[in-house]
Amino acid sequence: MKILIKIDFFAQLILLIVAVGSVSILFINREYFVVLMAAQCCIGIEQYFSSLITVIFKASLWRKKRTHLVVSTVYLVLLFAFTFLHIHGIPHSIILVGVFVLPWALAVYYFVLTCQVNFPAKSNAGHFLPHTSF
Questions:
Q1: Which residue has the higher pLDDT, 26 or 40?
Q2: Is residue 36 part of a domain?
Q3: How many domains does the chain have?
Q4: Residue 113 lies in domain
Q5: Does residue 124 fall inside a structural domain?
Q6: Cα–Cα distance for residue pair 48/53, rounded to 1 Å
Q7: Would you tell me how many other CB atoms lie within 10 Å of the CB of residue 83?
């Protein structure tokens, strides 16, 4: 499971770097919007299945990842519902939030959780005179 956690971290890192790179190039050339959307989809798919596997096997931080999984599932159900129902009259700003802001918020949240698993905070508590008990 440890190797999968490392693979998960580096896959997310590479996809995030591609996404940030495409956003920076997007200001110069609008054709990189497709790269941004592809990176966003790849990050979402990778994080969703990673979260699912973590919850199934109850690996580290599985409760927080369960929250991510539930929110992601609700988001995807709503996204598909709005897409297939062809609901008109939704303001452009709401669509922008639904298509970009929410997925990236979920992606950043999951990436932070992945970083917490890969780079745990080191605690120096309990190292001073460990043989004594006060």
A1: 40
A2: yes
A3: 1
A4: 2-118
A5: no
A6: 9
A7: 9
